[in-house]
Amino acid sequence: MFNAVLTLRLSRHGVDIVIIGFFAWIALLPTFKFAWAPLVERFSIPGFGRFWGRRRSWIMLSQLGIFLSMVAMAATSNDESLPLTALFAILLAFWTTTLEVAADGWRIELAPTQAEQGPLVAANLWGYRSAMVAAGSGAVLVAAWADWTWAYLVIAVAAFAPFPVLAAMRPEAEGAKGRWSALLLGVMVSLAILFVTAIATTAVGWVLLSAVQGAGVSAKTNVTPFVLAVALLPFILLAAALPRIRRLPPDAPQRMHAFVAPYVEIFWRYGYAVLAVLAFVSLYRMGDVLALTLSHPLWNDMGYSLEQIGVADGVVALSSSMFGVALGGWLTMRLPLPWTLMLGAVAAALGNWIYVWLAHTEPSSFVLYTSVAVDQFGNGFAGAVFVVYLSMLVSPRFAGAQYAFLSGFAFLLPRLLAGASGSMQTQIGYDGFFLLSGALSFAAIFLLPLVARAKGRVAE
């Protein structure tokens, strides 16, 4: 709702393709979820946490944030003020990401081995992709029948539906009492947190937007070289810090501090091999992220109707991605992980290259549905394998925080480049763009020999 559906909404309102690309940077927010993941790991929301426990307390807060953010996006659905549209999309991205942090930590705690993760990841992604496709397809179809305001309101109500289910669940501790008082206190505290978060986001956004406008950045600015320079910066900083991290003794403050230890530990454990791992994960989902950014504008420019796009995003995407997720999860239990990772990279690349065919073919429902089916199968297959791989990299001591860091870093480079996708499209066209995005996903294969040999050392 803050990415694919929003880019289609902006396209229908005639927003410039370069500006639409800039909106893809909203998806950068989940990349930095490691910054607040330790809060989710350590604290609970007053009221909710007392009765339902730490992880469910954050999920309930996040669902309130998701609901109110989408209601605000519905109220500004004419997109007459793009900064306001961006503000509410950023808030939606933040609370969606916070919910994922809580859920991912719980999943890894439940199933710490590769054999256990395969089926659990498949089940998790089935639910995740069902919701994603239902939201995308449902919003587009409602917009076709009514307007974008109703589209966002309908999905907001659907997204809030699990909240009363959570509220009706049994307490964390047997025999705990005070459900209604815990619910009331939790809602009041949550509304206060949501208000403070919205004010802080508005202030930071105003400062950043003023700085960007002052620097002269506009729809005519080629931001690609700047984005590439920024994308390389984390690797340079990590390479410089690794020698010192590797020499840290067991009682070093950096390895003991609650907010720093999860991230120091993973670099201490893998050493210089972590650079190859991070480069691999950055490339592996590149095609999926870039395709998500410009696939909907491509369909719109090709003349496909909202009804056709809704069906493609619904029945076609859901069934294809489900099959891909199931096959990927099944193969991780039966093949060595490097082999399934290689198959996933090939599937993801083909899912991007199929849009080159679409861009050069006369529009028809068959062409659209076939392209989406190939794309979503590859996306689902690669996604399932990738989640298992990341889950095997983390330490059980810091499961939630380390997974948040790895999964966030994995999308840093792709989402940085996604923000420049509009600029790239104006230079090389849709066909060149999707050829490039597929090639970047395929390139991850060349790092597999290094990644397969990366073994973490055992702590003292």
UniProtKB/TrEMBL annotation:
Transmembrane feature ranges: 17-36, 57-76, 82-102, 123-144, 150-169, 181-206, 226-245, 266-286, 306-327, 339-360, 366-391, 403-421, 433-452
Name this protein carries in UniProt: Permease
Subcellular location field: Membrane
Alphabetic keyword roster: Membrane, Transmembrane, Transmembrane helix, Transport
Membrane topology: Multi-pass membrane protein
Organism per entry: Sphingopyxis jiangsuensis
Primary location group: membrane
